[in-house]
Amino acid sequence: MQEFHDAAYPIVTLPFFGEPVQVQLRELTQAQIYACGGIDISLIETLHDKIRAKKKPTLRDIVGYSEIYHQIAKKALHRPSYDEILKSIGSNIDVEQVRRDILKLHEQLALLPDGKEADELDMEITRLEISANLLLPDDFLAGVVSYAMGIAKSDIKEVNEEMLYNAAVAAKLGGDNPADHLHGRFTDFMRDDINRRAWIIFHQKAKEMGDGS
Prior knowledge:
Elements: E1 11-16, E2 19-25, H1 30-35, H2 47-53, H3 59-76, E3 77-79, H4 82-88, H5 95-111, H6 116-133, H7 138-148, H8 161-174, H9 188-208
Antiparallel strand pairs: 1-2, 2-3
Helix pairs in contact: 3-6, 3-7, 5-6, 8-9
């Protein structure tokens, strides 16, 4: 078992291909999560999300979310580091070089007209993105992201659509934010998530009722 000496980062036990391993992790700030692309992640599951989840996600969707989660894991893993873990599982992929190759291919794709050649190049880009982004086992990645974002010790998974709508109504009347009307354990990132989702639901319901407010 690896010895840890840096007391600044807690030791966390997570599954790795089903086997328990110990790592040192850091919780990420709101700014760090956003820097990883976390602005596109919501931790709240509403009825709309459940309906949408029944539809098969595209390969592009899978790659996009995986990219964000791996960037979060890269920042969160202290010891062993993200790169050290990749080496330990025998990954000899130069991820940064792959990313540079992907950028070049995107530049080429932008110059091509729609057609077979463009479709083939797009599939090659997707293949490279998968090779760069789908490296860690799902159970381990989920555990790292949950810790890094403070999910397990928060109340974010208790938030539902009705709570969000009521919070938005109260915020509309009070001239403040929906998160000000939901009390629980939430990080700054989660409070922003609550605000975004609550206003979306509020305006959707207002539109359904014919009220443009």
